[in-house]
Amino acid sequence: LWAVVNNAGISTFGEVEFTTMNTYKQVSEVNLWGTIRVTKAFLPLIRRAK
């Protein structure tokens, strides 16, 4: 294993006042925390492959 190409992407659209906080949390859970989890899971494998 030489690299991980890590991409997550969901989106929401609409006016801020009508978008729920739960929707924003879901977007950040996938787009931010999802990529961090995958990176942390595969980083030891990448380091061992050097």
UniProtKB/TrEMBL annotation:
Coiled coil located at which positions? none
| SUPFAM superfamilies reported for this sequence | NAD(P)-binding Rossmann-fold domains
Concerning Gene3D superfamilies, the annotation shows: NAD(P)-binding Rossmann-like Domain
Q: Which Pfam families match?
A: adh_short (PF00106)
- Family statement: Belongs to the short-chain dehydrogenases/reductases (SDR) family.
Name by which UniProt lists this protein = Uncharacterized protein
